[in-house]
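Practice problem: predict the structure.
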Amino acid sequence: MSRRVVCISSATGAGAEEVIPLVADRLGLRIVDEAIIAQAAREAGVEHEVVADVELRRSFVAALFRELASSAGFVAAGGGYPVAAPDDLLTDDDLRTLIRSAIEEAADLGDVVIVSHAASIALSERDDILRVLVTGSPEARATRVAATRGVWDDAAEKQIADSDAGRADYFRRFYGVRQELPTHYDLVVNTDRLGAGDAADLIVRAAG
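Answer:
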């Protein structure tokens, strides 16, 4: 039976941004990515960038919410986004619940490719979802980052290392997953040698 919900998680530099639109187009599905964060933010009564920064920068959460609780506005470090203070202090559990409920709602609607936000973990108990990880070796991913973002090799390697550390931290804090494993997914696609088209083909076949 064709699966009309595909969750695609990806490691930085794995080229998933090229693969995902191909998968969605070939399967006739819509893509839900930042919409998940936007919906969680609306439900929390805070700006989109607050939830996004909390997801990406877990070490910053305590200071961020202290500022939000004590002032009428705050500019997120490094982002430059003005944000409004929520009525109540949001905890990790609050944010996890908001993001997870948004993911579940998107899956319930169906005909969708849900991108990242650990959707495969959030929906792990469902058997009508195809869970995919697009990844590659740190070396290949760093090479791709250096080429696409125009940075030096050492800077690209640092970006990969920082991203992987943040990803591991997010999995641990939000879902209690100590280590991300291949068995968290139905399909793992290594883009070290596979191009975007071939990677998309594999995912489409698995979803068919």
